[in-house]
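> call design_seq(struct)
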């Protein structure tokens, strides 16, 4: 794959697309081989990798009765447990603004459009 390029992973059902992505993002443990992103070993340095890489699954993983802001708080805790409250709030506020959802941060997930 190349920097600044879009990569597409195609294959029929059961070909292993989801398994590959799950392995590369640390959800599954690899059975053999190695991989790296920007020089970071994906299997032996997952913590560093998670600082700049994530996954957006094809299923809706939002909880209908949580707001945009509440979702960000939960997923932030998954990614960085035990942050200082000030750091957490600042990073969540920035994320919400960067995503263009600052006017919807108190909206329930079930009230958002599919694009949001």
């Amino acid at each position: 794959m190349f920097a600044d390029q879009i990569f597409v992973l195609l294959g029929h059902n059961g070909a292993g697309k989801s398994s590959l992505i799950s392995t590369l993002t640390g959800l599954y443990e690899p059975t053999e081989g190695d991989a790296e992103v920007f020089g970071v070993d994906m299997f032996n340095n997952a913590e560093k990798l998670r600082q700049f890489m994530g996954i957006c699954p094809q299923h809706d993983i939002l909880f209908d009765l949580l707001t945009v802001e509440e979702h960000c708080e939960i997923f932030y805790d998954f990614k960085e447990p035990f942050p200082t409250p000030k750091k957490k709030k600042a990073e969540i506020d920035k994320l919400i603004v960067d995503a263009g959802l600052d006017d919807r941060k108190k909206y329930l997930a079930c009230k958002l459009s599919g694009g949001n």
